[in-house]
Design a protein that fits this description.
Radius of gyration: 21 Å
Number of helices: 20
Structural class: alpha/beta
Largest sheet: 4 strands, parallel
Strand content: 5-15%
Distance between the termini: 62 Å
Order of helices and strands: HHHHHEHEHHHEHEHHHHEHEHHHEHEH
Oligomer: single chain
Number of domains: 1
Helix content: 40-55%
Strand order of the largest sheet: 2-1-3-4
Shape: globular
Amino acid sequence: MGKRDWHREYLVKCAGFGDPPWDRELDDMLEKWRRAAKKLKLTDDDLKYIVTDWIPRNFDIELEGTRKVIGVLTAEAIDMMMASERKAIGEKIVYGVLPAHTVFYRALKFTDPKINVYFIDANFVSFIQPLFHKIAPFLDYAEEHGVRYGCRHCALNKTRYTLLRQGIVPLPDVSWIWGFICDQAPKSDEFIKEYWNQEYPIIYSRWSHHGAAHEKEYQNEEMVKYLGSVMREGYEQVCKLLDIEVDEKAIMKALEERRAYLIKYEQLSQFMAAHPPPFNGEIPLILSHGLWAVFNTGYKYYNEALEAVIRDARERVAKGEGIVPKGSPSGMMWFMPYCNPFIMRMFEENGVVIAFCDALLPSKADLEPLKFDDPFEANAEAFLKEAMMTNWGTKADLTIEKMANYNVDFMIWGFEDFDRWLGSDQKLCLAYVERKTGKPCFYIEGDEWEDRDYSEESMRTRIETICQVVKARLSAGP
């Protein structure tokens, strides 16, 4: 018997390239995958472990949709590892950061297909940690080269620094960094430029969070117009550096593309509201990245993966099947720590499922038609509707709306103690939501991107306690 080809087995068994129609791409993808894995120093032993143990233990790869979602992440990681080759032949490279709408980055690519757009932090971390459990070396390197651990910087920013400094990805033609939600990313890019490489080309777009508690900021015309002007200014600077014209039709095309994906994604959200849910919320969460983190591979893989997941969900719901027994509690997390998938598995081992990620779950307002016609103001309006973008009171109000709309039994915050914006108001939201809904709410200390500060066993104790309390509260009734 010959030596097993673990690169091929990974693509076929775990990443959907053994399933039609992706199987037609297998040979071409396999060659690229070998080069990418070598660049990332992923060994045969690494691949054997994830194919035979890690991925089957933490992901339901019996489902075609799950395999294809893994394939979405893999295809983008492979493409990202080709960025240096593309730059060498004269193609342009643009970086952005999570969380940012995909629209403007996609519009750049519509304007000139030889412009490559990558979120080198979020899309890489979403590949290397949940699928390989190997983000730690990238974080350790950053901490050894100026980003001190004690400052509790976001793992995404540290990973971006390491990828750049180690030459795994090239310097871009421009890094357009949004500080609309949290401003760690712009500060981190300024650090990278000043501390390491003065030739790092950055454009900052930032925003002052000044909405009153419970204000629906997307209905504030002055606020929408101001944010739209900031987006316009940043986009015009990017286009100038790339030597292309501002094409507003390309922006509207990208906005329509995003909204079409959003509407289709909502179909999956409705299936996830079943009791029991067909699976946990990790796979839907990763699919929501199609709204927030632009992929240079575009929506092709995303749309086909989403359709496959919807088919899987529809079939399970029709049969009354789910990831936990019927009658089990179904909950929501503000931001699910999907990069550490053993956490979701431990809830299920205790007869409880986390079905939704609040931060990325569409609200009723998200699905309503946009009122502004100007492409920049329309994008600002859409952005201000998002739970991550708004003030703490509206964020809590949206949580309450989603808990009712999606049939949620309990709510968990946490895993964002490193984030100066998203982690700052969670205990305030918790107290408000629990008081208004009467449903059990919890907070867990931790980091959603990495697990160096906690083990599976230490997390298991907390999760078991939460599950016991949830079951007891639900048994007691309202």
